[in-house]
Amino acid sequence: MVTYSDPTFAMIRSRIENIEEIQRKIFKCLHESEAQLQQISLLYADKDAPSDTCILTHQQKIRVVAKHHGWQWLLGRANVNDKIIGPGKQIEISVMFDDILVEKTVSQNEVIDVHGYKIIDLEIGMKVLAEYNHNDAPGVYYTASVAEIPEEQNRYRYLLLFDDGTAGYVIGDQCFICPDQSFISSVNPVHKRFIQYYNRMYQEGGFKILDLSLQSTILTEINGQWRACPINFTDCNIANVQVSPDQAEFIYCGSPRFAPIYHRLKAHLIV
After folding, report:
1. What pLDDT score does 96 carry?
2. Which of 31, 139, 156, 237 is most buried, taking the most CB atoms under 10 A from its CB?
3. pLDDT at position 261 over 90
4. CB–CB of 108/91 below 8 Å?
């Protein structure tokens, strides 16, 4: 029979007290995290408030990906300014970029909270931000459009068509949804029209691409000029093309940067 003075009972009681203490610490941490998330969520709040309403009572460093210029976004840390500005209820966010040590003020449509971001399934045509999977500079993100969703044929990856005419495969946790889905980069006008056409053709039953697996060269558009470029290898529906002696690019096998696709689209007044 176990009594209150029994050493075994004392040991069990001590462990129970330790567990209760751990529970108290966990609940405290959860409460503090919830309060912090509520403050961060004010970044994206859409409330009817006067222009002098205080959004955040103190400045807080937040890990973000923010628009640097054009179609390029960089990792950095953000300070949320205290007040809503302008009639459109925009929030000013001051971002210090990591690598270039430059500070810039952006709107809430030009910044993504990295830690608060939730991964969701992407859809065809959705605008996203992603690193080049062949770029050796981490933390640099570019705008792109989703062209394929994960399936067995593409090894369960998303195909992205970047706004400069290159392409790449990524998995879902390697990209962010662009806050402004209406954003269209001005990098390449032909590419813009092609993306719009591609999205429509995909919905209607698909888009015919080139089979470059057995070809050694292809006529490719490079900075407005056509050049015969060697094909290094293919990865599902993208090809690694040697565009210069020291540079290779991944290009979608249905891209108008390839002459056969360009002429086909031109005949149909697409480009």
Report:
1. 85
2. 237
3. yes
4. yes
> Locate tokens 């971001």: which residue?
117
pLDDT in tens, 215-240: 999 999 998 899 999 999 999 999 99
Q: Are β-strands 158-162 and 103-106 bridged in parallel, bridged antiparallel, or unpaired?
A: unpaired
Residue 72 tokens read as 């390029």
List the structure tokens of 5: 């003075």
Report residue 73: phi and psi, to 5°. -120, 145
Q: What whole-number distance in Å separates Cα of residue 260 and Cα of residue 219?
A: 8
How many angstroms separate the Cα of 175 from the Cα of each of 41, 119, 127, 146? 20, 9, 10, 11
Contacts of 108 (CB under 8 A, 6+ apart): 43, 44, 90, 91, 93, 179
Q: What is the pLDDT, as a whole number, of residue 236?
A: 95
